[in-house]
Specification:
- The chain is mainly α.
- Helices cover about 70% and strands about 0% of the residues.
- It is built from 6 helices and no strands.
């Protein structure tokens, strides 16, 4: 976060009479799930439109992000995400039996 962004959020939190961390938590909690789904769909379209533009050295970072998200998500959240992917026509990733051992 830049110093300018930090100051902006700090001022907004102060105006509400809450701490910066509480303000940021409220902002994160207020993110609409549909907005997130739309952003994911947009990212998917971007990758599909430009498959050769995705650097292969990014895949380790992508894998790490996915694993971290799976670690913090409840099983119900993962099922909901898989259902949304299926609804969107995307086959959700599942580890094969070989990878589990």
């Amino acid at each position: 976060m830049s110093d300018e962004e930090h100051q902006h959020y700090l001022i907004a939190a102060t105006k509400l009479g809450i701490s910066l961390s509480e303000y940021l938590r409220l902002r994160l909690a207020s993110v609409n799930e549909n907005d997130v789904a739309d952003q994911i769909a947009q990212l998917r379209l971007t990758i599909l439109d430009n498959p050769s533009d995705v650097p292969t050295d990014l895949w380790p970072a992508v894998a790490e992000v996915v694993l971290l998200l799976r670690h913090i998500c409840k099983p119900g959240d993962v099922r909901a995400a898989h259902a949304e992917l299926t609804r969107s026509g995307v086959t959700p990733w599942r580890p094969s039996q070989d990878q589990k051992t």
